[in-house]
Amino acid sequence: MVRTQIQLPQDQYRRLKRWAQQRGISLSEAVRRCVAERLATEQNAPSRDTLVREALAVAGAYRDPTGARDVAREHDAHLARAYRK
Fold this sequence. Notes:
Number of strands: 0
Structural class: mainly alpha
Order of helices and strands: HHHH
Distance between the termini: 56 Å
Low-confidence stretches: none
Radius of gyration: 23 Å
Largest sheet: none
Mean pLDDT: 87
Strand content: under 5%
């Protein structure tokens, strides 16, 4: 294990300390768990390049069955109607 030193804002420190106490673990173990969870989440998440590529692949690929052709200009109005339903 590698020893390191970090600085936390007071609020984060208090919240993390409380979280650790509720679980009966040390502050160091709480930090390790939070870091491990975050790294695991990011490892499974698609990269930004992948997200952009996927978005560009579908952009303009679908037609509105009602024939709306002014979505770019009138997107707020279209959203308002969609959310009223």
